[in-house]
Write a structure and sequence with these properties.
This protein is mainly alpha-helical and 120 residues long. The chain has helices at 12-22, 25-45, 50-76, 82-115. The chain has a domain at 30-110. The protein contains 4 helices and no strands. The protein is elongated, with a radius of gyration of 17 Å.
Length: 120
């Protein structure tokens, strides 16, 4: 699926921004709720590689929160109070930070499971 408004050489962040802005409100809420339930389930069950799975789930939650905050920010930026805009920007920044950290956690925890313990 190609977004015609997205350049062919777009970066990962540009791609994710375009995906979040193109998603429906229901899809973003589903991402937040589904990712939260998955994170809780994985943390409770703790299967092999659970930290990697939890990182993926939290990345999904962060994506949904970022999309919701961005949409609200774009709708309210012109006619809303500056306090609301500041809070929405803070939520968007926090979602970005959580998303990046959880994606890195998922990546390195997945590598740890794949490589196993090395004894030299």
């Amino acid at each position: 699926m190609m977004n015609p408004a997205l350049r062919p050489d777009a970066s990962l962040s540009e791609f994710l921004v375009a995906r979040a802005r193109a998603a429906s409100d229901g899809r973003l809420v589903l991402d937040v709720v589904g990712g939260s339930l998955l994170a809780i389930g994985v943390a409770t069950w703790r299967p092999t590689g659970w930290i990697s799975l939890a990182g993926v789930a939290l990345s999904l939650v962060a994506f949904g929160f970022w999309g919701i905050a961005d949409r609200e920010l774009r709708e309210r930026a012109h006619g809303s109070s500056s306090a609301t805009v500041r809070v929405l920007r803070a939520v968007r920044a926090a979602a970005t930070l959580v998303g990046v950290l959880s994606a890195l956690t998922a990546l390195f925890a997945g590598l740890g499971v794949a490589l196993g313990v090395w004894i030299s």
